[in-house]
Every structure is written in structure tokens, then in C-alpha cells.
């Protein structure tokens, strides 16, 4: 039989696979709004041209001109579609506060889905080529597929070119192991989204919509949103990784149990890892990092986090959220050596107790920051924070009943965090997947039943689709 079939060169097989992936990716993106496919094509063509030009150019001035073209193209798209109205509205309010009556132009354009993700991914390619860390890709098909790869196109993870591009140059083994582990990640992601995030979101939405929330209602809504956004965003990352693995690709892990972090720096090593490392490598280090003294280091940390907050959305609430985390990083930085020395001097049992206390304390700070991330406006955020100072009433059950499925949400969050605590203690994020067959069977059956029971109410859009 093998002799009867023509022998197809491997290079042709790879090209055919990449063509199929590219067509699937463009179809996937165009299904939302085909008109914005032109933006994806423009960003891809611009950065492919810049990469080739940088590879063949040695004159520093010309190289700076080429990288400026890439920066202008990618950041220009973001500035126009994501921030134009924000800056014009802010300018108008500022002028009015100064007594100048002006009417700034407003476009009210629709934000293209995933634009913050694919522009950063494409921009990392040209920056790496410019820095000499990467050779330019000479095949336009491979580069276009790298930029538009559909599993992570609209909400990440933001993949580095040195990690993802080579996977389009070689055969991708698809085995039972990759398919089964990929299906497991997809199932975990669906469970987090449909069963946990969408139920917990009802509590968060109800609490943030109240005109006069009590302390208990405000606290419940804030905690609910903290777990909603984690379950929601990590769910998409799990589904993206699982889908890619079923196709023979390996994507970066974007979350590593972030609510078990005890310090600000540890949190950002665990939360939205692809973005935090991108900001570190391409923004913080470009600003000078920690090379020019303490004052400049703090400035760079704060500026990086403020811009990271603004990356999430064109609103002052995101700027405050980023600034809050920047201040936490700045405040913790001088304390870090002393904390490490103190921890090393303690016995193992006291270390565990101290870490548990630090995790609980830092989680409260993270939740305070989430208030600004979730609130519709700065005034709404302070409205929720002021509610935390209101004297609680004795009608606990009545207050919580106004928020919807509070107890169901609490049980789901407890189950999710319980599994993650076990994974943390065993140092195995695949703990359930590696468990004995009877244990896996019970867990899978319970998850499937919860999915059928709760998932029948439908599923909301992923939160990070708006970024």
C-alpha cells in the first residue's frame, strides 16, 4: 500500500498544515467581524516587512527607523481604536475644569477583539529581531500563522516568537498523550468558566449594581469578582493550551495559582504570566530596569504597572489599578531582603505559618485593587470601598440573599481552591490528571454533573475579550 501512494515531501506537508491553520485562524477571527480582519493582516504584513528589513540592515539609523515603523504601526492601531476617545474625553474634562469650554472629537469606534494581544505578540517579534535575539522569519506563511494562531489569538497567552515560531517549522507529533492531556485542559477550562466564573459573576454583578450596598454585600461582591476574573481568564488560557496541544502545539502557561502568592513580585510571576513577562522584558528593561539607582527603579516599576493597567482598558479605573500594584511593588522592594532573611531564620513550622498569613494578607490587597478593575467608574469604585466602612446589620442572610447564589458560589470557589492547594502542596499542576483511575473517574463525573446542572443557564462572554 505504501508503494502505491505517492511520497509527499515533508516540507509540503508542513506548508499544507500551516495553510489550513491560517485559513482556520482567519475564519475564526472574521466570524466576529470580518472588517477587522484587515487590521490583523496589516499588522502582520508590516512586522514581516520590518523583520526582513532589520535582518538585512546594519546601519543603526536605518534600523531605528524600521523598528519605529513597527512601533508606530502596532501602537498606532492600539492608540486609535482603544485610546482615542479616552484621551479626547479626558482632555475635554480637563479643559472644562480650567474654565475652557471645548468639544473634543469623538469616534466611538468598536474595539476590535484581541487587538491588545496580537499587536503585542507581533511587536515582540520585531523587537527581538532588532535586539539581535532572533533571526527574522523568511516565510510569510509561517509568520502569518504565528500572529493569527487561533487558539490564543483573542485572549492570549501572548506567545514569544522564539517559543511558538519554531513549532510551525517542524512536524508536530499528535499522540494519544497530547490529545488526552489537551482534552483535560479544555475540560478544566470549561468547568472554570461555565460552572465557577459564570455563577460567581452573578454575585459580583449584583453587588456592584447596588446603590447602597452594606459592608457584607460589598465584601461578598469584591471577593466574588476576584474569583470570577481568575476563573474566567485562566479558563480561556486552559482552553487555548488544550486546543493547541490537541493540534500538536505547546503554549505557555499563563497562570500558576496566583492567589497563593505571598508578595507583590510573586503575584506577578503567577498572574497573567505572558503579559507580566512581556512588560518586564520590553518595557521595564527598556526604561532602564534597576540599572540607574533606586529612584529610577521605582519610577520604572510604577510606570510599567500604570501602562500595564492602561493596556487592559481605556479608563482611569485601570490606571489606578495599575498604579496600586506599582506602589505595592515599590513598597515591598526594600523590604524583600529583610523578609527573606527573617524567613530563613525561622523553623519550618513557623515559615509555613508566616507564609499562610502573608498569603491571606496579600490577597486582601489584591481584592482592594480588583475594586477599581471591576468598577464602571472611579466614583463607583470609591462607593464600594466606602461601603466596607458601613456598620454591618444583623440581617446577614437577608443581605446575602439579594446577591443571588452566594452559598453556591462559595462552595464552588472552595472546591476550586481546595484542588489548587493540593496541587501546590504536591507541586503538581496535573494532580487530577495523574491521579489513579478511580479518583479521576469520581472527579470527572462530579465535574460533568455540575456542568450539566449549572451550565444549562448559558455562558457569558470571556471578560478578557474586551481587552
Helix-strand blueprint:
Layout: H1 10-30, H2 37-55, H3 60-97, H4 115-131, H5 140-148, H6 161-164, H7 176-209, H8 215-246, H9 264-270, H10 273-284, H11 294-312, H12 316-332, H13 336-345, H14 348-374, H15 378-387, H16 396-401, H17 406-426, H18 437-454
Helix pairs in contact: 1-5, 2-3, 2-4, 2-5, 3-4, 7-8, 7-17, 7-18, 8-14, 10-11, 11-12, 12-14, 14-15
How would you describe this protein?
With 467 residues, the chain is mainly α. The radius of gyration is 24 Å and the shape is globular. The chain has helices at residues 10-30, 37-55, 60-97, 115-131, 140-148, 161-164, 176-209, 215-246, 264-270, 273-284, 294-312, 316-332, 336-345, 348-374, 378-387, 396-401, 406-426, 437-454. The chain folds into two domains: 10-168, no CATH class; 176-466, no CATH class. Helix content is 69%, strand content 0%. It is built from 18 helices and no strands.
What is the string of SSEs from the N terminus onward? HHHHHHHHHHHHHHHHHH
Please summarize the sheet with the most strands: none
Which class of secondary structure composition applies to the elements? mainly alpha
Low-confidence blocks of residues: 1-5
Overall radius of gyration? 24 Å
Tally of alpha and pi helices? 18
Tally of distinct domains: 2
How far from one another are the termini?
52 Å
* Beta-strand content: under 5%
* Global shape: globular
Key terms:
69% helix; 467 residues; 2 domains; 18 helices; disordered N terminus; mainly alpha
Amino acid at each position: 500500500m505504501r508503494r502505491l501512494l505517492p511520497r509527499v515531501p515533508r516540507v509540503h506537508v508542513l506548508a499544507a498544515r500551516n495553510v489550513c491553520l491560517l485559513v482556520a485562524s482567519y475564519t475564526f477571527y472574521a466570524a466576529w467581524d470580518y472588517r477587522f480582519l484587515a487590521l490583523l493582516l496589516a499588522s502582520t504584513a508590516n512586522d514581516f516587512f520590518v523583520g526582513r528589513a532589520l535582518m538585512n540592515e546594519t546601519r543603526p539609523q536605518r534600523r531605528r527607523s524600521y523598528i519605529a515603523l513597527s512601533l508606530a504601526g502596532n501602537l498606532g492601531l492600539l492608540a486609535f481604536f482603544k485610546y482615542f476617545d479616552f484621551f479626547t474625553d479626558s482632555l475635554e474634562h480637563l479643559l472644562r475644569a480650567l474654565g475652557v469650554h471645548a468639544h473634543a472629537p469623538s469616534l466611538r469606534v468598536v474595539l476590535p477583539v484581541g487587538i491588545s494581544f496580537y499587536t503585542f505578540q507581533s511587536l515582540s517579534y520585531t523587537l527581538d529581531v532588532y535586539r539581535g535575539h532572533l533571526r527574522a522569519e523568511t516565510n510569510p506563511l509561517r509568520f502569518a500563522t504565528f500572529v493569527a494562531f487561533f487558539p490564543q489569538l483573542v485572549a492570549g497567552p501572548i506567545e514569544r516568537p522564539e517559543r511558538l515560531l519554531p513549532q510551525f517549522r517542524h512536524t508536530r507529533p499528535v499522540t494519544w498523550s497530547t490529545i488526552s492531556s489537551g482534552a483535560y485542559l479544555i475540560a478544566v477550562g470549561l468547568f472554570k468558566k461555565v460552572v465557577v466564573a459564570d455563577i460567581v459573576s452573578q454575585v459580583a454583578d449584583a453587588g456592584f449594581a447596588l446603590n447602597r450596598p452594606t459592608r457584607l454585600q460589598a465584601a461578598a461582591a469584591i471577593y466574588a469578582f476576584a474569583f470570577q476574573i481568575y476563573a474566567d481568564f485562566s479558563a480561556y488560557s486552559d482552553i487555548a493550551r488544550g486546543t493547541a496541544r490537541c493540534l500538536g502545539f505547546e503554549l505557555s502557561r499563563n497562570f500558576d495559582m496566583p492567589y497563593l502568592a505571598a508578595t507583590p513580585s510573586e503575584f506577578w510571576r503567577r498572574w497573567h504570566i505572558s503579559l507580566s513577562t512581556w512588560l518586564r522584558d520590553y518595557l521595564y528593561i527598556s526604561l532602564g530596569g534597576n540599572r540607574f539607582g533606586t529612584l529610577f527603579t521605582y519610577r520604572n516599576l510604577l510606570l510599567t504597572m500604570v501602562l500595564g493597567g492602561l493596556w487592559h482598558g481605556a479608563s482611569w479605573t485601570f490606571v489606578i489599578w495599575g498604579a496600586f500594584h506599582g506602589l505595592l511593588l515599590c513598597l515591598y522592594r526594600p523590604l524583600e531582603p529583610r523578609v527573606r532573611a527573617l524567613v530563613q531564620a525561622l523553623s519550618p513550622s513557623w515559615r509555613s505559618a508566616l507564609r499562610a498569613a502573608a498569603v491571606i494578607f496579600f490577597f486582601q490587597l489584591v481584592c482592594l485593587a480588583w475594586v477599581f478593575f471591576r468598577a464602571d467608574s472611579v466614583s463607583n469604585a470609591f462607593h464600594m470601598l466606602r461601603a466596607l466602612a458601613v456598620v454591618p446589620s444583623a440581617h446577614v442572610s437577608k443581605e446575602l440573599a439579594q446577591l443571588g447564589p452566594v452559598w453556591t458560589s462559595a462552595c464552588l470557589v472552595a472546591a476550586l481552591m481546595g484542588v489548587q492547594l493540593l496541587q501546590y502542596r504536591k507541586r503538581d499542576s496535573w494532580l487530577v490528571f495523574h491521579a489513579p483511575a478511580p479518583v479521576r473517574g469520581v472527579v470527572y463525573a462530579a465535574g460533568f454533573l455540575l456542568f450539566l446542572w449549572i451550565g444549562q443557564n448559558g455562558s457569558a462572554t470571556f471578560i478578557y475579550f474586551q481587552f
